[in-house]
Each structure stands twice: as C-alpha cells, then as structure tokens.
Amino acid sequence: MKGLFRPTSLKRMVFFLIADLILSGVTLYLAYLLRFNFQIPEEFLDSFWLTYGVITGAKVFFLFMLKNYFIIWRFFSFYDARNIFKAHILAYMFFIVIYLVFKEYFTPFPRSVIIIDFFLSLIFIGGLRGVKRFITEGRRQYSMKPTLIIGVNSKTNTIIQSALKEEIDYYPAAIISTEEDEKMADGYINNVKVFDMSALTTIIEKKNISAAILTEKLAQNELKHLVDRLNKAGVTEIKQVKILGSEHEKLENLSIEDLLARHPKDLDLDTISSFVKDKSILITGAGGSIGSEIARQCQKFEASSLILVDNSEYNLYQIGEQIENAKLKLLSVTDKKNLEAVFKEAKPQIVIHAAAYKHVPICEENQEMAVLNNVLGSKNVIDLSIENGVEKVVVISTDKAVRPTNVMGATKRVTELYANNVDAKGTEIVAVRFGNVLGSSGSVIPKFKQQIEAGGPVTVTHPDITRYFMLISEACQLVLQTAAIAKGGELFILDMGEAVKIAELAQQMIRLYGKEDEVEIAFTGLRPGEKLYEELLLDESEQETQYSSIFISKPTQYEISKLTQDIEVLLEAEDKVKALQKIVPEYIRNIHI
Q: Does residue 421 carry a pLDDT above 90?
C-alpha cells in the first residue's frame, strides 16, 4: 500500500490531466454563469460542449508541450507559472482562430465568456499547482533549495529521486550537461530538463538557483572554471556526490582540496603493490600527516608488518587505532639506543623516515631542537638502517630544502646531503622532495577554515606568496612509487604541478563558504625565514624517470668524513645558523626571494 501512494512521473501527469479536464469544465460553466448573471439562456448552452472540447483540448496540448504536466508539486515556481500563462494565451488564441473560421458551429456564442474563462482558468489551474507547494512549505521547518545538477548520469537520476522522497534539502530545478554529455541537452531526466553548459548563468538567474550538485568528476581546470562561473552567478553552496548508489550515499561540500589537488596521471599501483606487499616496514614520524598516510597506504598494499615510531603518544595512539596489528613504538629518533633496540627486534626490510619538525616559525624559535631532531634524528635512522642491513631507506624531504631561508629548510638539506653521500654498503638510500600536502597539520587550509568559521579575518603573510600543493594520499603513493624504482643515492623530486597564490587560495575558500561580504583578508607580513615562493630544484639538472611525475636531481657531492665532522660541529655549535651555512652555503637567512 505504501508504494501505491509514492509519487511517480506517470501518477503526477495523470492527476494533473484529470484535474485540468475537470477544472476547465468548471471554469467554463462558471464563466457562463457570471456572463448571464447566473441565469444562462438555454440556446447558449447548445455550443457549450464544443467550446469546452476545443479550449480544453488546446490547453492540455500546450500545457503538455511546455512540460507543465511534469512539474513536481512542491517545486512549482514563477518560471512554471509563466509557462501556464503562455499555454493559456496559445490555447485561447487557437480557440479564437477556430471560432472565426467555424463561427456557424458556435452560434449563438457569448464572446465575453472567453475573457472570463481565461482568467478563471489561470486562477484555478495555476492555483492547483501552487497549493501543494504552499502546503508542503508550511509543514516543513525549512525550505528546499532550488538546485542545479551538473552532469548527466545515473547519479543525476538518484539525486532527483532523493529529492522527491525528501531525503535531501535540495530540489533539482535544472540539469546542466558537461562537455562529455553535451548531446543530452534539451532532454529530460525524471522530467527535469537538461540544458547546455552555455545556459548556466541564464538558468541560475531564471530559476533562482541557490545551490549546485556535481555528479561528475571533472578535470581540475574544468572544475575551477565551473566553480568560478557558479560563484560569479551567486551560487556559493556547491555539493558533490562522494558516495552514491548504496545505503551510505551522501553529498559533501566541495572542498578547496578538490580545487587544488594535483592528480598524478601516472600512479602505478602495481609497482607500489609489488614494492610493499609482504615486506616488513618501519615508519618514523608515523603519527604525523605524511607518516600516518604512508602507514595507511602500506596497510592497503599488504605489508607483512608495520612498525610505527613516533614521539607523540596521542599521534601514535590515533594511527594505532586505524591500523590493526601495527607495532607502536613511542620514542624519539634522537634516542639512538632505544631506536637501535627497535631495529634489532623488528628487522625491517624498508624504512620510511618521515619524522621531522616541520613548522618554520617554531623551528626558528627552537633552533637547538630543530637541528637535534631533523639532523641527528635522521642520521640515527640512516646509520641504524645501514648497520642492520635494511634493504631500502626513504627519507622524506621538502621543497624548503632548496636554497633555504630558514632553519627547518637548512636542516632538511643537511639530511639530503647525508642520505646521498653516506657509505650505504648494501642499503639503498634515497631522498624524496615535495611541497605542501593539502590539509596537513599546521597547513594554511585548516587554519583558513578556522578563521573563516570564526568570522575572519583570514591572515595571509604576503599578497604574492605562493606554495605547491598535493593531496596527502597521492603524495604518499608517489613516495612509495619512487622508492620502488630507486637504486640508491638519488634525490627524487615529485612534480607538484603549478604553484598556488595563497591570497587567491584564501579568496576561493571564502567564496566556497559564501562569506565574501563578511570575511576579509589581512596581510601580516612575511615571518622570519619565510620565502615568497618555494622551489623544488637547485638547478636545471633534473633527469626524467619512466614516470612524468617523478624526476631525479643530480645529488650534491660532499665528502662523507667531512660531512660527518661538520654535522658534529653543528650539533655542538651555539650559533646554529652559522654552522648550518657552512654545510649549506646557499642558506641565506631572512632573504625573501
């Protein structure tokens, strides 16, 4: 019985058709009554049914042609009311033409009845279509939002069905086809019309669109262009289908990560799988943004065992909750004695070193600890890996190591030099350098989100500052892919795509939150050691690999005994900057390029 009363396109059309047939008869008869002061002469009723048939037939035809029989009751809008008016104009004009051509069949006929019936029919037929919407809106505590669906596919139909069942707070007012499905324009899905992308702005204005739902995965440049068009047209609430076609289907806000993410086209999952599967892997800094994602990826690709090392109990607990059977080791990489015990016990085949202090201002204020953790800690991991016959060591580096202007970048450059020049014996040691990952702890995106939600201002250090960005998951997959092809001694660079202006990023995030008139951007000035832009290469000597997203930079030669001695001097030095500059001569503090 429940299914009997569920609304469908056919039931809705049949209801409106029958209702229009009845209402047209009622309004025509009422027009006659009004014309003759409720006393209709009998001779004028002779042509009543002929008049009814012609007018009603014409109305039904034009209402059908204008898709008025497919309106969803609670979504009745001014645009639909205008179509009812058009249908009436056309129907009554048609009747007038028929009357003038076949006048003898209608005689006697009170012509003023047509004018009266025209207005009565508009009121009754239009009112019927509007009443359900008003009743529904009165019952609901919130109103559904007129929504544009972008993309023509099975998900589009599911969204419309969800709206009909009132499972979502959006109703589909129109569908926009993308380039891939542009041939669908002027068609209908569940009686919602499909328009070409060129009509986007017009449809938003005409149908009072306040939200958009993306049902297709678009290329990043297409997505950015589309979002810009939607924002300019006043649509700031943009949703996308994350999971669909199951009991867990849901809509999620389009995120800034979706707009900025660089999606490598050459991810080789088979290569990653063959590298990771059935291997014992030790990950330092396993509770951090990069380390935890690498741990999840290693679990996904079926590592035989995972040894997760971190000096934060909370971070280690968090990642331990996500990965069953992982061995959790709470210690600092600067604690060589306890770290050695972990190596002896675990006997890892692969070591991924992601432990580091990474926040530039904190490292500037705490130079001793930055050098101790980033340099000594890395040296400990590399040395113990060699001593314990680890097959491969992957050192996570950063674009801040290129011509560093801060302590953090300089310490990472020292680590690169040590990884590339140490006597590795049978261990293959590689460093992988990349830029910022989207949404990592302490990055600008979570910070901007908090500032926007708090009402602003959004703080940016400089109008021209730029950074590279990549999704954490994809960056970590590329790290594993890089490790798989490494032979040892290389410095790899991941292609991060184009640099993004942080000010433009802030503006885009404010638009996505729909708070352009509420939240301002404040420029606070570059912080100590901060660059205007980051680089990934020291020079143009990079070498291509079999993957377009992975390059090899020519390692800098540094006699290892001298480097070891210079590191010892660095660890003991009171002036850490000066000692770092001896090892990394290109390190110029507080010079903003």
A: yes
